[in-house]
Amino acid sequence: MLNSSIRSLCRDLTEALAEENRHAESAVIQSDYLDNSEEAIATLIAGRCWSDAERMIRRANRADLRQTHLLPALKEAADAALKAVESRRESLQTQLARLRVVLDTKQKVAAGLYDEVDVNVEDADLYSDTTSLAPASTANVTKKSNPASLKTRCS
After folding, report:
1. In the chain, which end has fewer C-beta atoms inside a 10 angstrom radius, N or C?
2. Residue 155's pLDDT band (boundaries 50, 70, 90)?
3. pLDDT in tens, 63-114
């Protein structure tokens, strides 16, 4: 049995580890040194250490925690992941639609079909100047010669 000052230090350490997203280490201290398997399981679940939480549930023989803690957290994490995937899918669809418009416009311009392309001349100054700056920035690059090269030694 640990004395109260060491137990207090262990509790402080578990909190600090959990704050640094080191939930597995925090759970080890809670389980092995503080003999608090329920808190260790909750910490593992908070850190999304699903298999470790399941293993500790079995080791502690606490099947009730699977129903009350683990499964609801798994469902919540799965729902959040599905929402994130759906959001990214919608973003991709929007970007693909815009890309199709841009490619179609470029093909029409390349084919010389200027009447079919809607170019807004009034807003031309709002477009990025990166296309005009890119060639200028590469023109200022000077090529450095290698002093060990044959051309340098022969000159």
Report:
1. N
2. very low
3. 999 999 999 999 999 999 999 999 999 999 999 999 998 898 888 888 877 7
Q: What is the CA radius of gyration of the chain?
A: 31
pLDDT at 151: 52
Cα 42 from Cα 108, distance rounded (Å)? 60
Burial 71-104 (b: 16+ CB within 10 A, else e): eebbeeeeeeeeeeeeeeeeeeeeeeeeeeeeee
**Residues composing the chain:** 155
The answer, as to whether pTM is greater than 0.70, is: no
Which distant-in-sequence residues (6+ apart) come within 8 Å of 121 by Cβ?
none
Instruction: Check if the beta carbon of residue 54 is closer than 8 Å to that of residue 70.
Output: yes
User: What contacts 33, CB < 8 A, 6 or more positions away?
Assistant: 2, 7, 10
